[in-house]
Amino acid sequence: MVCLGNICRSPLAHGVLQHLADSEGLDWVVDSAGTGGWHVGEPPDDRAVAVAGNHGIDISCQRAQQFNPRHFDEYDHILVMDRENLNRILALAESQQQRSKVRLFLEDSEVPDPYFDSRLFELVYQQIEIRCRELLRILGK
Ligand code: 4NP
After folding, report:
1. Is the pLDDT of residue 123 over 80?
2. Mutate which of 81, 115, 128 to test ligand 1's pocket (most atoms within 8 Å of Cβ)?
3. Residue 56 Cα to ligand 1 middle (Å)
4. Where are the alpha helices (DSSP H) in the chain?
């Protein structure tokens, strides 16, 4: 799961998908990263921790990291929250195989950045949970 800062959207997607996969007994390794490095080592934004907690998911132990090209080989799917960050990730890819792993988390739309608008956190959470449930169905077969 990839966003800009790895403190709002991608930690939520990471936490929700890992929680759902674990609940189904699936042996999935979910991780998240930001294209930017400003928040590396920090826990998720308090508002992201709070909205996840309201839905029974604890993301407080996550720590932000910056996307590293080695992630192309470590993961099967690289799902990105918006087009700007999708383009940044695609620019780092060095082969068609790497590019083929990268797509928008919401397929044809973007998860809005809630960092400067706290009212968006619940909406973002809802979008992420719905999509994670779909991903579980699609990829869990
Ligand atoms: P995220 O949100 O990409 O969903 O983690 C942001 C986090 C930090 C900043 C922007 C967006 N920032 O400008 O520091």
Report:
1. yes
2. 115
3. 23
4. 9-23, 46-54, 70-74, 83-92, 96-99, 120-139
